[in-house]
Amino acid sequence: MKKHIVLLPGDGIGPEVTKAAKQVLEAIAGRYQHTFTFESHDIGGAAVDQHGTPLPEDTVEACNKADAVFLGAVGGPKWDQLPGHLRPEKGLLGIRKQLGLFANLRPVQAFQQLLHASPLKSEVVAGSDLLIVRELTGGLYFGEPRERRDNGQSVVDTLAYQRSEIERIVEKAFQSAQVRRKHLTSVDKANVLESSRMWREVVEEKKQAYPDVEVEHMLVDAAAMKLVTNPSSFDVIVTENMFGDILSDEASVLTGSLGMLPSASVREDGVGLFEPVHGSAPDIAGQNKANPLASILSVAMMLKHSFGMQEEADTVEAAVHEVLHAGFHTADLDITQGIEVGGSQMAAKVIEQ
Amino acid sequence: MKKHIVLLPGDGIGPEVTKAAKQVLEAIAGRYQHTFTFESHDIGGAAVDQHGTPLPEDTVEACNKADAVFLGAVGGPKWDQLPGHLRPEKGLLGIRKQLGLFANLRPVQAFQQLLHASPLKSEVVAGSDLLIVRELTGGLYFGEPRERRDNGQSVVDTLAYQRSEIERIVEKAFQSAQVRRKHLTSVDKANVLESSRMWREVVEEKKQAYPDVEVEHMLVDAAAMKLVTNPSSFDVIVTENMFGDILSDEASVLTGSLGMLPSASVREDGVGLFEPVHGSAPDIAGQNKANPLASILSVAMMLKHSFGMQEEADTVEAAVHEVLHAGFHTADLDITQGIEVGGSQMAAKVIEQ
Ligand SMILES: CC(C)[C@H](C(=O)O)[C@@H](O)C(=O)O
Ligand SMILES: CC(C)[C@H](C(=O)O)[C@@H](O)C(=O)O
């Protein structure tokens, strides 16, 4: 197959981990006789420096023509004091919205070798393997009006949804649950929000079409508790944009493997943006210390979700597991009796496998 | 001093724990020569059954004349299928709003004897002692419009604040920090929400008046992570109503002592509503199993925040610590080599102390 991939290295350690992602994609292309072509564009702080905007026009145009996009990381103290529209995150929010990437998929898995690094007791977190499906282009992030009023004496933001926006993310979640352990937790605040009551109705309607999936509704406050007390009880969680932002970050620290977590933001036709969950870590940028595994696992998600290459994706995931199993790790992971290597060596090990 | 207290026992274990709270108040009145008078009213499911509404008029009237209100718990499966306006939680939201209780104070403290019950590793959670100051009568909970639109094809909720509402909660938080460890974390989502940007401005303005308090701003997703990875790094957290709902429930499970957590909802003049954080636990209602300590610690908050009785409050807290230290516990707390007692015995032990 021929696929065209846009790389958005971004800021901090973004370029290093993007390089690792590209190498893995090239290795897969070689082994499975695919043709992957690449082009790189600026986003975030790097784009502010080069073009005066965090999301240049030609970056958007290139992404619009791509089969998939890989993003390294955006942001850093250098750009933190800029006004809102020039903040690196605007680039990220903008590209999600412009590409219509409504479904953010955030898997969290406990790796046996890393449990000692978890803040949770091993018996609480062991065996956890969950997927948060976060709505990404609606809700409190984009609703209008969002403005000052009464001469600056009051302010509003708006949580708005089209019913159809809720339907498509709920369907995506049901489909994800079908290929996993067939359990879906829909998270809302139906005892307070009208939008949550519509959300609950849509889930109740849609579940007719997925009789093999068991559904439960949970309030967002209860979900925030249960993620900590019993993370292994979850399979797939589906929720609104802001709730998803909070819960997926909470979930990301449970297993002690933040440096390992991938994410995908996709739309119906499979086009997607893939990025590691970790940030741009400006303090270690350029020192070959960054752990490339989150990016490499994001590549596996790209192969699966955007290109339908299940076998290739499995190969990448298996390689990551074997390298960890053999005891190799970057400085952020502290594996007892392991062998510490630099970021580029880690990527090479995975490719070797 | 003379004080008039309204008791709202509510549902499930609410009446049992309210009884314990009243006994402790009576003991304090006796020892310190105060006159506390009491009257009981219905709220929640109990009020739906008796009066056809979760918040009867005369309950509101009585609360309006009280110096403080104690609430047991509301809700239960019996009322879960009722339409929105008859749900027991409506009683709780209504009384908060009607009394203007804009500041919800939720302390979370790690008790050495209970660390084994925490989902977190002891070394992560030990020493945690934080207070969440949640805005309680504004934000996403009450903003208008909140409605269906386009013939049911879309929906909105509104996150609205007056600048003055943000100012008073931020001031309350600074004052709370001043009598604690003088560190304030203001939590928002300023990279996305206009209301969060106003929130941040208000904090920056107000901090001039509290030069002894160190302030930091944190994004809500980062705060959700740090509560799990490093809870002992927080002192006071101040945040919007919905963020506060999520974070305070997340925080409540960190220390393994959910059955111990009190809460206070207060306004400027000190009038407040005090309630245990735990729910109505209908499964154990009426069996003398409910742990009364959260309610008793809520009484301590009432003495301090509504009546200005610092010494009396300290006496109650010290009694709770001593009873725990002596190894007494209810069925929900599992203290190694402890002595399990029923809820009423537990209350008696505290009063004895
Ligand atoms: C940078 C920020 C706007 C973004 C979000 O809130 O969506 C980030 O936290 C994320 O989750 O990808
Ligand atoms: C019952 C519910 C409406 C309430 C809230 O969300 O405020 C509860 O979760 C709380 O935190 O006291």
TrEMBL record, chains A, B:
Site (Important for catalysis): 141, 189
Residues reported to bind NAD(+): 76-89, 279-291
Binding site for substrate: 96, 106, 134, 221
Gene Ontology annotations for the cellular component aspect, listed alphabetically: cytosol
Enzyme class: oxidoreductase
An annotated GO BP: L-leucine biosynthetic process
Molecular functions (GO terms): 3-isopropylmalate dehydrogenase activity; magnesium ion binding; NAD binding
Name of the protein this chain belongs to: 3-isopropylmalate dehydrogenase
Species this protein is from: Halobacillus salinus
